Structure formats: C-alpha cells, structure tokens
UniProtKB/TrEMBL annotation, chains A, B, C, D:
It comes from Actinokineospora terrae. NCBIfam families: endura_MppR. GO terms for molecular function: lyase activity. Gene3D superfamilies: Acetoacetate decarboxylase-like. SUPFAM superfamilies: Acetoacetate decarboxylase-like (SSF160104). InterPro entries: Acetoacetate_decarboxylase, ADC_dom_sf, Endura_MppR. Residues 1-49 are annotated as: Disordered. Residues 8-36 have a biased composition (Pro residues). This is Enduracididine biosynthesis enzyme MppR. Pfam families: ADC.
C-alpha cells in the first residue's frame, strides 16, 4: 500500500498579477549563481546545514569522576607499544588503568540538556613514556560506551572501541555505596563483546597531596586513518592533545587490586600487571581543543 | 567434531585393601535416604545450591540520586488507575515524575563489588492516593535499565519494565555539569523501545525545608501474577512495601518542565501533565524488607 | 505448594435492603455510577483499558530457527536439578543446549508489524526426565535478549534471564554464511553480564530422519513466585506447557562441539558436558496456550 | 582537499653498500638491535602483532537479507546533499530506503565462527545521482548496530552511525512470519538515541524480473577525516567502492509504505518521502575490496 505523497499544494495565481517591472536603465549585472559547495559538517554525515555531523567541532568540555590504579607492566612489553619516536623514559613499565564516568559538552553546552547524549563511561590503559625528554603518556587501549566519544577518539588518534564500563558511584546517604571525598571502596569492571577484560578494586584511605603522575602528563597518540585507495599510505601522525582548564578535585588514595584478562583481546595480555600500586579516586575536568603534531 | 569428555579418572585400587569390617553386634538401623527436596532458591532459576536464583531474598539496601518533578494529572484519569480499595485523597490529581540512579545490595553487600550488577536507573510516575484515610502513593508506570530490579519489582507488585533512563549527574569540577548541593540544572530523559516517552528539566535554586511529599509516603501496589492454568484466578493482592532506614540528603528545589509522550505506551497519555510544579534534587536511601497485605 | 489467590470476596447481599428511593417528579434519572473495578490487564502494568499490560494473554504463536547440540551431563548433577516429582528416566544425563532466533505474535498478529517487538534470541539447556513414566524435558537455565519473553517465561515457570545470544544465520547468496537446508557450519554464543557462558559449533552434513528427541517432549517447569509477605509460602507449582501446531522443517544433523563456562553463574558448571553428541539445525514453530498442573 | 599523509620517508639505499663482514677472530658479535618500527595494524588500536586492530584489512565478504523501498524526495533536497562533482542525473529525486541484516567475514572467514562479531543490521538512504554521466548512488545517512561496520564505514566515507535496526525475518514454518521467496509482508524499523526515525512496510506479491535499480549502481562517498591540527584541511575525497562477486537471489516485489521522522536528526527531514513506490525483498552478497578516487 502506498503512502499518499505529501506534495506542496499548487499555488493559485494571484488575482491581480504583479506588473512586469520595466528593465532598469542600466541593468545590474546578472549575478552568476554561487558555486555549489555541497554538503558540509565537521564530520560525517555531511548535510546541507552541516548540522547532521556526528561530531561537533572542538573545543569540548569534559568533567568526570575517575577511579585509577597505578601498576607496572613488563618494560619490554610497554616498549613494544611505543612508536620509534617515543621511549620509555625514567620509569620503564609505569602504567595505569583508569575508569571514568564523563559528562561533556560543546562550546554551546547544548548537549548537557540531553543526558543520554552527554554521558559516557571510559576505561583506558596508560603507559609512561617520553618524547625527546618530555614526559608523556601513551594510551594503547581504550573503551567507551557511547559511539560519539568513540569516533571522536579516532579523530585524535585515541584507539577507543565500544565496551561496557562500570564503576562504583559514591552516594550521599545510606549504606549502598561509599561517600565522596572520604575513605571507602570503589570497584571498576569492563566487558568487551561479552568478555570481562578488566576488574579493579580501590580502597581509598586518605587524601593525597598531589594527583597521580600519569594523569598529569600530555597524551601522545598516533593519529591513524587506514588506507583505502590503491597505493595509499595510511595516515600515521604523531600528535599530542591540546588541553586547557584542567581541574582536579581533592584526590583520595589507598590500596588497589587489578586484573586484566587478555584472552579476548589480542596483545592485551602483554600489558597485564607485574605489580599493582596505589589506587586513586578523584574528580577531573578539562577542555580539549585539538592536537599538535610532534615533529 | 566431538569434544572429548572430561571424565574423572578411574581410581586405582589401593595396594593394601582395607579390611572388611565385621558387622557390629547390634547393627545400627539402615538410615533411610533423605527425602529429596529438589532444587531451590528465592526465585527462578532454582538450583541445587539455591545460588542460581536471579534474586537474592530481601532485605535490599538502596541509595541513589533523585531528580523529581511535582505535577498534576486530570483527577479522573488518576482515579482510573486506582483499584477500588484506594481513593484519591485530599489532593486529587497530585502526581510526580521521578528519575533516580540507584546502587543496591543484599544483606551481604556482595553486589557492591560488581558495579555492573548493583547499579540501575529508574523512572517512575507516582499518583497521590489514600487507603482508608492513610496517605499513600500509587505507581502506575515504572521503567528500569537492568533486569534484576525489573523482576524484583514484579515480586512486590511494582510494574517495572525495561527502558533507557538518563539523568544529569553533578560534577565536582569543570563546566560540564552542575554541582551537588547547589543551584543548577538537572535533566532527565526516558526512552522505551526506541521512543522517547518522558523528558524533564529541573532548575534548582535553593534548599528546601522538607522532602517532596509524594516521596515520603508508602507505596501501594497490586501484587500481580498472571493466570496460566485453566480456570486459575490471577494473583491480585493489595500490598504496601515495608521500608526502614530512610535517609534524605539535603533537598534542593526550584522550577521544572515536564513532557510525557503517550503515543508509544497505551494509557500513558492519560497521565500527561495538566500543570507542572516544582522540581527537586536529592539523595535518598532506604532498606526494603518485604510487603504487607492491606486488608 | 500452591499460593492461594487473594481475590476480592464476593459481597454478601445486605441483610436489609436499602429502600427504593422515590422517583423525582421530573427527571432525567441520574445514572448511578458503575461500580469501579479498577485498572486491569493480563499482567502489570494494570491500566484503565488493560492495554498497558506488558504481556498479551496467550495463545502466542512462535516460529524460529534452531541450532541444537545433544550432550551428556553427569546424571547425579542432572538429578540435583529435578524436583522430587521428576526422575531421570531411561537415559540419565541426556541433555541439550539449544540456540534459537524467534519471531512471535499474539492471536491478533499485531506484533509482526513491529520487528523490534516480535523478535528475540534464546539459549536454553534441557535435561531429559520423566514424570510418572512420561518422558519430558526440564529447563534448568534459559536466557533471552528481550524483556517480554523473559517475563512471559516467569509466568510459565521457565527460568528466563537476560543475555546476549547469537547464532549463525543461513544466507541465500555469497560466501558469508551457510545455506538453509544444506550442509554447513552453524555457531552459537551466549554472554551474560559481560561473561561468555556458552559456545557451540555444529557442522551439519545430512538430513535427519526425525527431529532430535529432547525437542519433541513436553517441558515441565516449576512455576515460581517468590514470597514477599510475612509467613507467605512461595508459589511452586509443577506445570507442563500446553502446545499445539508444532511444526518442524527438515532437520539437518552432523557433529558438534560445545563449551559451557560455569564460572560466572552459580551451579551452571554442574551441567558442563561430559560428552558431546550430534548437532542439529532446523526450523520450528508452535502455539503456546497455557499450562496444566501435574498432579 | 586531500590530507597529505605523514609518512616515514623512504630510506635511500646507501651509496656504498656495506662490505660483507669478515667473521670475527673471536667472539660472537653483539648483534645490533633491529630498528624498532613500532606497533602496527590496519587500524587503531595499533599493537606489537598488529592483531589488536579493530578492523581487518579488506577484502570483506558480505551476505545479507534486504528489505528495500523505492521512494522520491524533493529533487532540490536531493541536490543539496550532493557534492559539486555529482549531479542528479536523469531521474532527479529517485531515492531508496534500505534495511539489511548482514553477515560478513574477512578473507580468512574467521569471523563466521563468532556470530556476535560477524552479524549486523543496517539502514541506509540512497539518492540517485551521476558522476560525469555515470549512474551512481549517494548515501546521505546510514545506521548500523555494531561498532565494527560503523568504523569501517568511516574508512570508506560512508556516514554510518549507531542505531537500533530491525526487519522482519522470513520463517520456514508456522504463522509468525512470512516465507522466503514468496508473497508476504516485511516490516522495518529504525531507532536512534531513543527516537524512531524510520518505519516501512513492504507487501511483496510477485517475483521481479530484475533487481531494483538503485541497488545495482556503485556507491559514491566523500571520504572524510575531520581536521584536528592547527590549519589542517580535513580529508574530503570523492571515492567509489570497488566491489566484486555481486549476487542477487530472486527478488520479490510489491507495494510499500514508508515513514521518515526527521525531528530527531538535523536535515533528515529534507529527505522525507514525497511519493512512495515499490518495495522489494531479496538476498544480496558482495565482496568489498577498497575504493578508487573519482577524478
């Protein structure tokens, strides 16, 4: 059965037709039609207004609650995840496993009115490294639970995939959760395609004097766009993110346990803990503006 | 290809067989085998240990963050959702739309170590009513985003279905979210089977002197189990929940907007707002022990 | 133990009937309001029209594609999942693991117009058993990927929980899948709360002369509704499903592998394969009308 | 505008080839470490073995079941979605809405053993167009329900986002579904972020003599990679997909209805139907090898 087409009604001719205007004495030149520029937008999908774009352009503001575990990997394994321009730096094998529950918005802040759009969970691994003596962090694996931050990660070179990420939320009342800014236990889990790949427990006991080191250095990514055309070289650009308005809440720290299950994800097992250090819980915010090439 | 069966190895006979014991002079009576009682558990699935049960038995401890909007429905519509034992009470048409992000645990608190199990979002509608002059609240519709609280709802008579529930989270730092216990804006959305059915915006401006009324009265449910056998009468039991350890955080209140879209859900449109009142944001905790029949 | 339904008592006629009021002199008679009966429906949520009910009443028509693996469990383990009224029958330890992709509809067939509502995947385990010499099958565990069949399972006593269920689909063209009704390989996987719990591979090579035995006998469930009120006995009713219009397509059979991972689900490990038999692929349809008590 | 790839420079051959080293008099020489090349892979995440890559390299084999509706959009609206290199061709405003359930695999076919990885649903809109007189199809919007085909879409310039896509499956037996290759009704629905955006009903009545035109022409995409670095021009490359091994099953056709709801997606409303034509149901397979630039 055919849907009846919704056509614009045919306009009736006006009762008194407008008089045909006389040509001006000196005709203005006929403007050439504007060059058609086609649909646009910061990302796909391109559209006439540009507003269909899956991504808004940066800057993006982020605020979140973080559960973080310091740990150590085999330094050779860490090195095998670094591009040649980076080296391990003074603390080879230093690593972190980080859970975060984020809220984000564009410059307009419009997304904050749609909590189903502006919230996501994230889990990532960081490896300590250096670029020409400058301390940085490399993210070999990351998962989020919303497609927008996933694609946004690929624009910057951050290898975000989709997973199911959960972490303990502090509660203001009752016994079903720890308190914010107090001693207590925070857990995190990650599952990817029906396999649990990471699990941590952090028992914070006291306020720390400074934020955990690996959360204070710039991230260095290999911005990658796979080859598709015959003979094309893939994009592989070493970049660092440009971040402002970094804020930490008070940081609570304590002991931690961490398990990574590498069976389901090739090469993830290389980054399993050889030792587990302190755990941390804190609020964090930043504004992300774009990247800069490391050259 | 057949998986090789994993059988227990056949035990070798002992080198020196144990001597055959002589029969006692007065034999003990041969014990009859215990009556087999079958698999058990608080709920399905029943299993030998009882630990496969989808639900743990009550009590359950809950703590959560709530975004609530007072509103009014047509009193006749409200009445049409009440069983005959209940009436509208002194404020006919008083209603509330409530978003909450919960954490819960059983008496053992074991679930708190698995954030993917102990967290869920909930949206529900409450209608003011009375049972024999006692103020109560009736929940005609509720949605959660996890199957365990859904089934647990059905055990108590609460009509929980599955949906996608989101609400603004307060943040400690940055610009991507309001602060806890302060003026700010909180939004909530609900989608069911790919249709958005509810949306609210609450702008809290000051601390309230008391919690919102409809969140302080007992819930009254019709505990229902559908008929399945020929001639069976369905269970339809009027019950009230037994709750202890209620805690409210400070409550912040202000103005609110609310939209319910009843197109996708039969009869939901009857409960659309005819007026929208104040909005509230607060933390809440309770322990749920079971129910009692109203007779 | 059967839960006694709590019905509204039939009101006795008053001892002294109220006097018949005299008719007014002139009168449109004021109609007396109908006795308010309250909201209704086959299941929760109850509503004025009854159409908010999550479940439609039976009968329900099902049609689906099945991938099934015959296997054997330890007979003592199988027995430990049977209520005392059932015994293992002539083939102790016979079991099956079954994947299915279903479409269903009520008598009206309305659901078929909403593929997001009428489709679901299912995985279940069956154990051979007997009730008073009558061959039946017991389902100790089942998972589906949609809440409606989950709740519908609980009404009948089938222990359905939510999981992620996938199985190979046959394709009419191309190389990315086997053909329907032909030799080929079919795989199935199940994940629950981020853990893979079952995986099978079936390589069918020839048409079978009859359907696999465990898919042809009635299911026997313990219809269970947990206790909620003080002193209440939970409903625990031994029932068999009433099914008509059973149809099998041609059945293709061959070899199979099967793995159950019991780590994530208490007592599931008891039902791990001690041997794996044949695999089967077929289409199946039935109409489910309700249940009958086994007494 | 093409983004200049940042490649490792091709090393020039040494001017004077190194002499073949004489064997040392004593000692196993200390081998110099191999030049470290860093982690690799076809896409992010890069890893030592390259096997962490979210995407396998092409070719990819696809097979699926398609429900397709021919319809017409306002030609000016269609034109506004075309880049300047394309024009509307001889049938301005011809469009199609296409639902498909796919299975895919890489050259190794490994993915077919993991049905949770190799299956996805897709919905897309196609617009008739021409490139230098060559008939092609432009895809302004597409949604899939799995992240791997989503990212793979972005590599080729296809604007795939995540959504919930459902379509009627034919069944071999019973009354809960139509038969494959026969008259019957097939429905499709799409929801994005909790909003239903498309719905179609196709009632096929007879076998068609040829496949629907818009499913037989090459797709032309604008391969896009957003700008991230200061002053960077985004990649925006007009490409056509290179496809082989196209197979159609028999095609059944009939009448159709179609509704697009553009409220939730900017600019989608521009492509709402002004008329709805025939509907089609068929199986389809192809192998996708990469792209070629249109110049």
């Amino acid at each position: 059965m055919t849907q009846s087409p919704t056509l614009a009604p045919i306009p009736s001719p006006p009762a008194h037709p407008a008089p045909i205007p006389s040509p001006p004495a000196h005709p203005a030149p006929i403007p050439s039609p504007p060059a058609r520029t086609g649909p646009g937008g910061y990302s796909l999908p391109l559209s006439p207004s540009g507003r269909s774009s899956m991504l808004t352009p940066p800057p993006w503001h982020f605020a979140g609650e973080v559960v973080m575990v310091d740990y150590r990997v085999d330094p050779d394994a860490a090195a095998s995840f670094l591009p040649p321009e980076l080296d391990l730096g003074p603390d080879p094998g230093a690593a972190a496993a980080i859970w975060a529950q984020w809220q984000w918005c564009s410059e307009s802040a419009d997304e904050l009115g749609s909590p189903q759009r502006c919230q996501f969970g994230e889990f990532l691994i960081l490896l300590a490294c250096e670029y020409r003596g400058r301390p940085m962090a490399r993210c070999p694996f990351a998962w989020v639970d919303h497609p927008v931050p996933m694609v946004r990660g690929w624009v910057q070179g951050m290898p975000k995939q989709l997973g199911a990420i959960h972490q303990t939320r502090p509660m203001r009342v009752g016994s079903a959760g720890p308190r914010l800014g107090a001693a207590g236990r925070f857990d995190g889990t990650v599952a990817v395609e029906g396999r649990q790949i990471a699990q941590a427990s952090v028992v914070v006991t006291e306020e720390a004097v400074r934020p955990p080191a690996l959360h204070t250095v710039p991230l260095v990514h290999t911005r990658t766009f796979p080859a598709w055309l015959p003979g094309e070289e893939p994009l592989a650009q070493l970049v660092s993110s440009t971040v402002t308005d970094v804020e930490f809440s008070e940081v609570w720290s304590g002991s931690a346990s961490l398990r990574l299950d590498g069976d389901a994800i090739p090469d993830l097992g290389l980054l399993a803990p050889v030792a587990v250090g302190a755990g941390h819980v804190f609020g964090y915010a930043e504004t992300l503006h774009g990247g800069s090439a490391l050259t």
